[in-house]
Amino acid sequence: MGEWKSICMLEDIPRLGSRVVRATGGDIAVFRTSANVVFALRDQCPHKGGPLSQGLVHGNQVTCPLHGWKLRLDSGEAVPPDEGCSRRYPVRVESGTVFLQI
User: How many angstroms separate the first and last alpha carbons of the chain?
Assistant: First the structure.
């Protein structure tokens, strides 16, 4: 089981946007929805490796900026008819601070 790390304040992540966390296993994109729910996925689309952190957040999904694939933020799974998955990381918010388990 990984270690929980404080990465930023919730307000540091743009609403309907993301923030990139550098990690030894690859970059992690931390997303914030319009409802202030926070999700974290590997910053790589399963299709062609596009940077998900640069995609559009809508509802509980992100659209890859390269080819328009949509991924569910809660699971990392591609929305059908596309197939694939981006690794999901546990994330939590406590007293306005965002913690990521890596």
Answer: 8
Structural domain boundaries enclosing 81: 4-101
Burial 25-44 (b: 16+ CB within 10 A, else e): eeebbbbbbeeeebbbbbbb
pLDDT by residue (tens digit) across 1-11?
A: 689 999 999 99
CA gap 72, 40 in Å, rounded: 11
Does this model's pTM top 0.85?
yes
Domain count, the chain: 1
Residue 35 is given by DSSP the state T
Among candidate residues 81, 36, 45, the one with its CA nearest the CA of residue 63: 45
List the structure tokens of 81. Answer: 């008819």
